[in-house]
Model the fold of this input.
Amino acid sequence: MSADPLAPKPTADLLLSPGSPGSPAPAGRPGRSTAAHTLLFLLAALALAGSMAAAVRIGTADVGWTGLARVLGTRLGLGVEPLPPLLDSLIWDLRLPRVLMAALVGASLAVCGTVLQAVTRNALADPYLLGVSSGASTGAVAVVVLGVGASALGVTGGALAGALSSFGLLLLLLRRTGLDSARIVLTGVVVGQLFTASTSLVLMASADADTTRAVTHWLLGSMAPARWDTVVVCAVVTPLGLVTAWLCSNALDGLAFGTDTAASLGIGVRNTRMLLLVVTAALTAVAVATVGAIGFVGLIVPHGVRFLVGPLHRVLLPYAALAGAVFLVWTDALARVAFAPREVPVGVITALLGVPLFLLILRKRGEL
Amino acid sequence: MRITAEGLSWSVAGTQVVRDVSADIAPGETVGLLGPNGSGKSSLLRCLAGLRAPDAGTVRYDGEPVQDWSARRIARHVAFVEQDSAADSDLRVADVVGLGRTPFRDRWRGPDATDRAVVAAALERVGLTALAGRSWKALSGGERQRAHIARALAQQPYALLLDEPTNHLDVKHQLELMRLLTGTDQTVLVALHDLSLAARYCDRLLLLHHGRLIACGTPAAVLTTERLAEVFEVDADLTTDTLGHPVVTYRGRSAAPLPRHPDPPFESL
Done:
């Protein structure tokens, strides 16, 4: 057939035939209008900016708002009076990259969770529970300990290789049932355990005591190692990943009804799934390479945001990114001050918040 | 749109499910696909909907082979409704029906005015307008099935392929659905279990047995007592309703009668 996609289709007349004369679009869809959404999104973005500014202030050395302004002013060359060098360095070299990193990683993990939950059709999917974070950890630790190339890029590359191999193993184990199998979380936990054990093995076998201590802290998930060079890697990869995921919004919606229905809607299910898994692996790897495996962010944030703005991914994904950023910025701030001057790894706090939610979802699904 | 199958075969895990099926479905025709469980109805539908690549043979839409078509191009021609497309989704009904607009939209673009009008018309067509804002989870099985059909209609397809769409429907909605399908200009191929329903509403019937197409023609020509006994293993009487459609009445499977329990002895009462 000489398919001209713009040619009037017989069914268009049919659907809008005299039987239903030009049924007007349902005015005022029950959802929010575009203007309301824009406003809400701007408010959420403002909340993130405010949270980040507040989080830079919070810590053992409080410099106040004027101090923060002076640090930023100095760097922007505004001719303000600089802070004492030690304090200035603390804010600029440690705390600022740390807060930026928390925002980027929070957004990444929340979007990874949202995407994985749609791709696997499982409400419990999250990079941590599916073992992807553990895979990334193994890759990163191998690079650090074996010293293959201990630059930020080398560690990220190792983490990416690890994340992709854990996905590969997961796909291999689920090759008969498919990715939307109900067993995916169980299989993911097993894959995660395998990689965690491998990480410990690499550490015990080849690292000295100092490295082991540093790396262990990092494996629990901590923002402390964030520096400008790692933030830059994250700042390049994360937006790319988020935009790619967002461009697949319609496909993610279609996947809710299974492979065949999605394919019958014109979605290239195989390719889209592969693309999204690679994007998820890359986002997780970049996060893990710097700050370790932080669990449950990808579980907590998407569920909360879905509850607020609904499940359509075109809307859900941007809000999940913002909410994830705000969430991790605040939990990291809490991790710094809760037991000051000692610092709790942020992964401990997210796990404490995430486990009850995990149980709640299990209960809701009637599996507990 | 004319759908043609030429020598289609498809197998999974070493089992041939569809064997050398050739059929031709004319534009605007409503064709019923019949056969017992496991006869290959669903697989044949999936091959014709471009969801499975046949091992041998060709599927043509209006004479053009579709094996090299993109999923998107196929979706603009043919809509497919699965048998049990379960989902634990929070999507609103209007958004589910809106999924039918996916092949016409950019990958990220939201619905425009046309999309909304088509969705509203599709909802009205299946009588779900009042539930447009309802969550998918809150729908009954029958409402979900109708929403899926509305989703397929929103695809504005030239042909509709449906796998046992009457499964979850009560009698009223079964009849309404069949009337809806036969009343369209589209080519319709529908797998059905209810032989009388198929005989009453379909222009032609295809009968599958062990993956082979063993009969094809008008309901009266396809449904015979001998075929029903051979394919479905039932004893059935065929009568004709007032409009001349065959009606199938089952006599139950010929089996030994159940043993009758002897009356209990009087004393035990």
